[in-house]
Amino acid sequence: MAADEQQRSVSASDPSEAGRSVNPTDAPAGLAKPRSGLAKTLTGIEGFDVISGGGLPAGRATLVCGAAGCGKTLFGMEFLVRGATAFDEPGVFVSFEETTDELAENVSSLGFDVKQLIDQRRLAIDYVRVERSEIEENGEYDLEGLFVRLAYAIDLIGAKRVVLDTVETLFGGLTNTGIIRSELRRLFRWLKDKGVTAVITGERGDGPLTRHGLEEYVSDCVVTLDHHVEAQVSTRRLRIVKYRGSVHGTNEYPFLIDRDGIVVMPLSTLSLNHAVSSERVSSGLPELDQMLSGGGFYRGSSVLVSGTAGSGKSSLAAHFAAAACRRSERVLYIAMEESPGQMIRNMRSIGLDLQPYVDQQLLRIHSVRATSFGLEQHLVQFYRLVTEFQPGSVVLDPISSLERGGTDFDANSMATRLIDFLKTEGITALMTSLTDGGAALEKTSLEISSLVDAWLLMRDVETPVDRKRLLFVLKSRGMAHSHRLRSFRITDRGFDLSETGS
């Protein structure tokens, strides 16, 4: 590899030297930092450079395979667009199925201005029409013609990146497996000799990863994309199957295609080394603060409030949000069962007016149904809201709604990553959880109670004449807290906690 190419690539042992966004400490938990100096090229695809430990192998070919509609072409196009716009690395896209206009139109909704990049000579697209019905096996077949076209395009713009989409089209009319294998090997070797970082897309085969079953063996890195629907919920997953000479995450990672392109969400990117604070913040109820050794919750901690329907969870969450706003802190309130107007009206009935905080842009209420889209898209949306609004506190009411957006495992995984993310950002999080009437009270449907720092239990108790509401601090890490049951009423002036549970 030439010296200038080495400078543009990134060493996996220290990606920060190139001044780019990947932090080695962000590697998936359990993965050691790479010891080798294997050069890597950042893709610029959000999340992928984290799980791959710095991107794709520089100057080598990577196979991206999957079934139709899983995002292969977009992965390749985003790899080139990010390279041209973020890393000053021009790229060549060789398409066997879509014309330049079709490709440009398809990715324009993501903000990719392909035609402008072509005009600036930072991107070249070569559409090679291959019609299977017009191919006739007669004599030797080789890829010399493709090599000539590709070499011309690379030299024309000084390309450092190449995408071939899809490789099966080249051999669609051939039955001689010997020729196919020979030319595939030549293609991968030719790309490596040219020193370009290449992405070659391939269609998923019935047995092996690809239709011919050879591409995965000659590639230095293999990435599979999958798109399946379960219980009417669509989920995309990505996995790095192979990466020669590099440590990488081996899990299946959910990903989605949103307004900015591909976003990969690592399952365990965040390790348990976030900063902690000894500062205390009010729960919004002075009496509850007293139950928490007099100071309220620790700043940056995660709090779970569980209870049956109508036990007062949302009202307590609203008091917590109002207390933060009174401290001039921003609060993001994610309401999964009520609209903003409905929530503001309902809280007024207990003497809590949230509208002034909304007007002062201290409180942002984001209402969304759990079934509106998949869990991964929810997670990305929450991530973007937090990133944009920069709140000091977040309320998720109720987090148990997430179980309706996927399987129990997926919902637990999503909730875990959300809690880890908020802790890493130093954001105090309060989450409510609905407990079914017949379920054990000291259990949550998402089984996240062990992840949170404080757990408040709210319940109704029937007496011969009425129903009483009770509040109990089940746990609160790092402080001596009350173990007494406290009865309370919710009046038009807010919460009224008694001294005892009677």
TrEMBL record:
<dbReference type="InterPro" id="IPR014774">
    <property type="entry name" value="KaiC-like_dom"/>
</dbReference>
<dbReference type="GO" id="GO:0016787">
    <property type="term" value="F:hydrolase activity"/>
</dbReference>
<dbReference type="InterPro" id="IPR003593">
    <property type="entry name" value="AAA+_ATPase"/>
</dbReference>
<dbReference type="InterPro" id="IPR030665">
    <property type="entry name" value="KaiC"/>
</dbReference>
<keyword id="KW-0597">Phosphoprotein</keyword>
<dbReference type="GO" id="GO:0005524">
    <property type="term" value="F:ATP binding"/>
</dbReference>
<feature type="domain" description="KaiC">
    <location>
        <begin position="39"/>
        <end position="278"/>
    </location>
</feature>
<protein>
    <recommendedName>
        <fullName>non-specific serine/threonine protein kinase</fullName>
        <ecNumber>2.7.11.1</ecNumber>
    </recommendedName>
</protein>
<keyword id="KW-0677">Repeat</keyword>
<dbReference type="InterPro" id="IPR047221">
    <property type="entry name" value="KaiC_N"/>
</dbReference>
<dbReference type="InterPro" id="IPR051347">
    <property type="entry name" value="Circadian_clock_KaiC-rel"/>
</dbReference>
<feature type="region of interest" description="Disordered">
    <location>
        <begin position="1"/>
        <end position="34"/>
    </location>
</feature>
<dbReference type="InterPro" id="IPR027417">
    <property type="entry name" value="P-loop_NTPase"/>
</dbReference>
<feature type="domain" description="KaiC">
    <location>
        <begin position="279"/>
        <end position="502"/>
    </location>
</feature>
<keyword id="KW-0418">Kinase</keyword>
<dbReference type="Pfam" id="PF06745">
    <property type="entry name" value="ATPase"/>
</dbReference>
<dbReference type="GO" id="GO:0004674">
    <property type="term" value="F:protein serine/threonine kinase activity"/>
</dbReference>
<dbReference type="InterPro" id="IPR010624">
    <property type="entry name" value="KaiC_dom"/>
</dbReference>
<keyword id="KW-0378">Hydrolase</keyword>
<keyword id="KW-0808">Transferase</keyword>
